[in-house]
Fold:
Amino acid sequence: MNLEELYQEVILDHSKRPRNFGPLPDATVTVRGDNPSCGDEIELSLKLNGDQIEDVKFTGQGCAICMASASLLTLKVKKKEKAQAEALLKGFKDMLTAPEAPESNDTLGDLQIFSAVRRFPQRVKCATLSWRALEQALEAHAGSVTTEEPAS
Amino acid sequence: MAAGERSWEEIRKDFPVLDQEVNGRKLIYFDNAATSQKPLSVIEAMTHYYEHDNANVHRGLHELSNRATAGYEGARARLAAYLGAQDEEIIFTRGTTESINLVARAWGEEYLKAGDVVLLTEMEHHSNIVPWQLLAQRRGVKLRFIPVTPEGTLDLSNLDQLLDGVKLFSFVHISNSLGTINPAAELVRRAKAAGATVLVDAAQSAGHLPLDVKELGCDFLALSGHKMCGPTGIGLLYGRREILDAMPPFHGGGEMISTVTFEGSQYKPSPYRFEAGTPAIAEAIGLAAAAEYIDGIGRARIWEHDQLLAREGLAVLSQIPGIRILGPLDQRAGLVAFTLQSAHAHDVVSMADQEGLALRGGHHCTQPLLRKLGVPASSRASFAFYNTIEEIQRMGEILKKVQTFFA
Structure:
């Protein structure tokens, strides 16, 4: 297994220059995700307007896979309807963790570069940390608008 | 090398696992602080037990049970000799963590009351923090910590003050995150003078340097078998005889009782009082074989070699641009944790793994310490006597490659 497959240019680029990085002062929901096995921490903030994700930003620190995944997440879900974000979330998780590797999923677009993580099981947590935070954020919004809850 | 001594190259051949390729490269195993590799003599001792002697201990009147009992009690005697203790002072546990929990439960709950102080250090492994936090919750005991300096050593300038009124002092002998060697004998002496009971966490030192509990003067000492060439699932607690005799049991059931009625039970003396149920017999025998193996090489010789590897490790790592080495730059054990400016510990470890180099990445179960040092995660190379200078130099090349990749 060639490591370049895991650390593709896009991933290195996003880890060095994460997009939408920083606080989101008018966030309606903020979820903190941490990976206690390594100390990685991500805080994902969403500004929800009805069912639309009007804005999304993140802060924190982690490995290249973790940071690139969070960065691409923000690009993909910004301005999307919640249902679309949920579909992306499911597609991303399935790509990495479903018992059978799914066929390529075009709606994931750039996110498909993370498919190699599937073959590095110890790195799945790194790639999914921000997505777990997103899942929590979307669920929290369904129940109450400004809940802050740590990711489980 | 003295006459009659086996060379390190020969010794290395005792470890079958080291002779393999990982990801197409020759394996370099530098995760020894997490668990060490096992020599053939340990593997064979356990296999022999299962192939010839397997039975339960103490209860049987038949031949195999006698052999199992002899093997298990022989292992206790071997470990007692390893530490300069009496047989009755060696309690087999699952490892350092369980040993510390045993002291916190059995000794702590009997002798500590609300407001009493337990002194720890900021460089403790979680296993020497959490049991005391649980005790604090149950009993209202207070925890106090000896601070760590930015250089990664204990700040002992206020030790007398910190020891004032302390009932128990528990500290790590060698830090698994910093490589710091704490002045154990001095710490024990000063704590005892202040009236404290002392527990030494020897998880990272027991397989690396000569240890004698009577010389050390501690009341308790905990170690894990698997970090000293022995099997997993076995370790021990040394306890000074008088203290153990005055302690209530830890777990209840099985071998630890002398009589049981429906109304109550009488407990056996130490060590049986603290060993409920069927013990890890093969593992105890394996651990004794490990002690035998280590002493066959000689702990003083192992420590000298450790120091050589530690110096080489530091020298090689220091040449990597943008590296931050945690812990003191001299007087350290054979493990070096570090961070690279360009790459997160996870990325370092993944990439090293592709080169056949096994490192550890993360917080090494010392989260509070790393938080204090402002390091979210670090990579760690920890050496054992079977490692070589060439392997350390190869690590230097691999890490330079990692840096170029992520720069």
Q: What stands out?
A: The interface with chain B takes residues 1, 3, 6-7, 12, 37-41, 61-66, 120, 122-123, 126 of chain A (CB under 8 Å).
